[in-house]
Amino acid sequence: MLWIGSAAFPLNNLTRVEATKLSPERGAAFLRFLKWLAFTAVVYVFFMAAAENEANVTENGQPVFILFLIGLIGYFVKVLVEPAKPILAVETAGGSLAMVTLPSVEELRTIAAQIVHAINHPDAEFTAYVHELNNYNGPVFNQNGAQNTGIRL
Fold first, then answer.
1. Phi and psi, residue 25, nearest 5°
2. Burial class (CB in 10 A: 0-12, 13-18, 19+), 17
3. How far is CA 116 from CA 11, 27, 131, in A?
4. Quick one: which of 41, 53, 64, 109 has the most CB atoms within 10 Å?
5. Is the whole model's pTM more than 0.70, yes or no?
6. Nearest 10 degrees: CA dihedral of 100, 107, 82, 139?
7. Burial class (CB in 10 A: 0-12, 13-18, 19+), 134
8. In 3D, which of 33, 132, 13, 16 has the Cα closest to residue 75?
């Protein structure tokens, strides 16, 4: 039995164990950036058209727009410079996917080799503890289906 967080996976149900690096979705982040930029521009134009005769409101609206624009650019730059994250992907015959993150791909490859050895040798036992990491996903998250996040520890 393989335990990942509170989820238990029977070893004979595993179809794939892979240690790799997961790259951030930069293309999707760029599309989100463009979507929010367009939304901000539409709101700004609507706000300026509604406050056409009031000079005081027009002057107060521009700093808010600029701050929001700076925040959007900051988010986009953060996603662009984010490095690829090492993951251990464990996939089952039922289509569910569990991922474990560690700072090093080599540590994950060692754990993957131990899992494969345990699958091939049912008498074998091993223990590997992954402690809490300080990142936005935590040490373990489960995905079921297409990019849907399940349990996050």
1. -80, 85
2. buried
3. 9, 34, 22
4. 109
5. no
6. 30
7. exposed
8. 33
